[in-house]
Amino acid sequence: MKPKVTMIAWNQNDNYVVTAVNNHLLKVWNSCTGQLLHDLVGHADEVFVLETHPFDSRIMLSAGHDGNIFIWDITKGTKTKHYFNMIEGQGHGAVFDCKFSPDGQHFACTDSHGHLLIFGFGCSRPYEKIPDQMFFHTDYRPLIRDSNNYVLDEQTQQAPHLMPPPFLVDVDGNPHPTKYQRLVPGRENCADEHLIPQLGYVATSDGEVVEQVIGQQTVDQDEQGLEPSILDGMIRQLQLQQDQRTGADQESASSGPNSGEGTPRRG
Fold first, then answer.
1. Residues 47, 82 within the same domain
2. I need a labelling partner for 2 at 20 to 30 A (CA). Which of 30, 155, 161, 200 fits?
3. In terms of domains, do 10 and 85 share one?
4. Which residues contact 142 (CB under 8 A, 6 or more apart)?
5. Poorest-pLDDT segment among 17-31, 53-67, 210-224
6. Diameter of the chain by CA atoms?
7. Would you tell me how many other CB atoms lie within 10 Å of the CB of residue 64?
8. Count of domains for the chain
9. pLDDT 10s digits, 170-193
10. How big is the chain by its Cα radius of gyration, in Å?
């Protein structure tokens, strides 16, 4: 196999360069002389995450598709700590990204199963208030392209980046309570009645009908005279115009030829 570098990172003081190679080795180099100092052995698959400690120049974190997370002392070429991302009933989860906190006391990782892993000192009590399953209700909504080939949300006909802030739901599409909806940027100061999404029955690709969030607006906004969406407003306006034209046609037909004008015809 021809060696290929998959990731590269400088340490905190730029004295060392660490490269990840597709033969699963990490190599530590002297950044001034180019001399190879250490081969770091431990990964069993390709590594795409190398993260340096924010202030300790000795520490480097690596993570890869094998589910392993290592903390290395790159000056000695030794392994300081090792974690394995084992998911019960599903095997290991590949680690896609990791970042240290600014104080260097914690680091967070994301994996292929949609999990956020937080490592560090202290207890996990502050994180227990967060539900285990958190998705945006628009995460898996289908997209379409308009006549200009721009991407639109299929349901609302809006550009995704112009849509209102989404709602937080669980893996089955059920919305979380209002206290969690305020965690979404743009909904921090909303009143409770504005954090209740509209629910409706939607057919999935396999024909199953499930109840999901279908609207961005609250359930009481129809009473306030607000449109649930731009598309709904356009449909109502077009329907009103059509009803007016239909009424005008009927009046013309009932008046007959005595009016002196021909009855308008539809194309």
1. yes
2. 30
3. yes
4. 154, 155
5. 210-224
6. 104
7. 25
8. 2
9. 888 888 888 888 888 888 777 777
10. 29
